[in-house]
Amino acid sequence: MKSMRVFFLFLLAFLVVSFAETVLGQASKGGHEAQPPQPAPSIASAVDREISTIEKEIVEAAEAMPEDRFNFSPEALHIPGSDYKGVRTFALQVKHVAASNYFLFSSITGDQIPEDLKGGNGPAGLKSKAEIIQFLKDSFALGHKAAATLTTENMLQTAEHSKSPRLHLATFAVAHAFDHYGQMVEYLRMNGIVPPASRGN
Amino acid sequence: MKRFSLALVTVTLLASIGTTVYSHAQAQDQIPLPARSRADEMLDRWNYIGNKLVAMAQDFPEDKYDYKLQKDERTFALNLLHAAGLDYVLMRAVAGSNIGPDFGEGDNPSRDAFKTKADVVKFVQQAVADGASVIRQQGDAGLDKTTRLGKRMLHNSDIWVFAIEHSAEHYGQLVVYYRANNLVPPDSRR
User: Fold this and answer.
1) B161: which of A19, B86, B87, B190 is 20 to 30 A away, CA to CA?
2) What is the value of ipTM here, to two decimals?
3) Cα–Cα dist B70/B56, whole Å
4) Helix (H, G, I), strand (E, B), or coil: what is residue A158?
5) Mutation site for A-interface testing, chosen from B179, B181, B183, B188 by largest number of A Cβ within 10 Å
6) B39-58 as b/e, with b when 16 or more CB fall inside 10 Å?
7) Distance from CA of A189 to the nearest CA of B (A)
8) Which range marks the domain in which residue B23 is found?
9) A153 is a domain residue
């Protein structure tokens, strides 16, 4: 009987130690709580969401700039010690993002680039704020179309009309737009305008 | 960015001229490129923007580190500290460990903790290197895991992409700071 009692005591101790190890092990993972298994978002939806994020920020920033200041360049402020000669105006920042979107996303979709899209600054004929913002929105529409074509099978394959993988083209387009969004933010503030995305802060 | 525009035009022209020839050559002699993983792609994007910030941090004159364009903005140094600080907040969550130096709560490290240009450069370099290390170590499997950030569970790939985009936005702001000081950003000089 005594040996049975000793056995059960050992068994109990083993179970307690095992349980404690499991609980402590999970608790010690630096804030990583037990993660309920979640279905991974598809690559198409994940990239599409990133495109939507920058689209919202950059379209709202463009809309926030008054039409009569749409061709603003920091050069006009003559900030002592500065050299903004030849930098893009606000309008050209927007057109450049849109043109780059067209070049990058069309490499994924195979769509024809608009005929009047000659270079990185977009069609020269687009002048008004409304025209330029529409051009921007259209470029993001192509982005959504490109995102929808991405699959786990093709995302790392080189796009037919490019030397870069499809995923690279799509994510670079977003990061590139964020770079210029950062510049647009400064242009807005130089005009005393708080960027819409920062107004809640 | 002028370089980027030129590159786009060049690529477009080359593409239109070369597509037919390339298609023929490809059909006849298709050499498979070495497979790249998603983690490789993420690492490229991470290092690309991270190294651009490091180059700025190293290049900008120390006596202008506390320059800002408008009164309600971060200084040059605080922009860099914020970008690297948020990188740490995110990568620590993903890695589940307290990587990197202690800079207090939040994602806006104080200038008091990073007084000199050398301190800031080192911090930004370390953030880029530490993030790269986590991406490399965790690989594709790590990108598919989820991490709790505040009240939300997010896929790690989303967290990395957010960090990259956030850095790109602050890079864009610093481009304007550069020109305000009669300087050309390092990436635009080539």
Assistant:
1) B190
2) 0.77
3) 20
4) strand
5) B179
6) bbbbbebbbebbbbbbbbbe
7) 7
8) 1-31
9) yes
pTM higher than 0.90, yes or no? Answer: no
Cβ of A46 within 8 Å of Cβ of B180? The answer is: no
- pLDDT tier, A42 (very low <50, low <70, confident <90, very high otherwise): confident
In angstroms, the separation between the Cα of residue B17 and the nearest Cα of chain A is: 11
Q: From the CA of B55, how many Å to the nearest CA of chain A?
A: 15
A151: alpha, beta or left, given left = phi > 0 and alpha = psi -120 to 50?
beta
B73 contact residues in A (CB cutoff 8 A) = 189
Nearest chain A CA: its distance from B166 CA (Å): 8
Q: Do A120 and B8 touch (CB under 8 A)?
A: yes
Q: Which of residues 128-187 of B touch A (CB under 8 A)?
A: 144-148, 153, 155, 157-158, 161, 164-166, 168-177, 179-183
Cβ atoms of A173 and A132 within 8 Å: the answer is no
Domain range for A50 is 43-198
Half-sphere exposure of B146 (CA within 13 A, CB side): 15
Per the CB < 8 A criterion, the answer to whether A183 and B176 are in contact is yes
Residues 19-38 of B with CB under 8 A from A: 19, 33, 35-38
Helix, strand, coil share (%) of chain A residues, nearest 5: 60, 0, 40
Q: Which two tokens stand for residue A165?
A: 């993988």
For Cα atoms A129, A131, A132, give the angle at the middle one, nearest 5 degrees.
65
Tell me the chain B residues in contact with residue A38 when contact means C-beta distances shorter than 8 Å: 146, 153, 155
Residue A17 lies in a domain: no
Whether residue B25 contacts residue B125, with contact meaning beta carbons closer than 8 Å, is answered with: no
Cβ-proximal residues to A69 (8 Å cutoff; 6+ apart), any chain:
A90, A191
Query: CB-CB: which of B49, B147, B180 is closest to A175?
Result: B49
How many structural domains is chain B composed of?
A: 2
Mean pLDDT of successive 10-residue stretches along chain B, which has 190 residues:
41 35 38 73 95 98 96 95 98 96 95 97 98 97 92 91 96 97 90
CA distance B100 to B85: 10
Tell whether A29 is covered by a domain.
no
Nearest CA in chain A to B97: A30
Number of domain units in chain A: 1
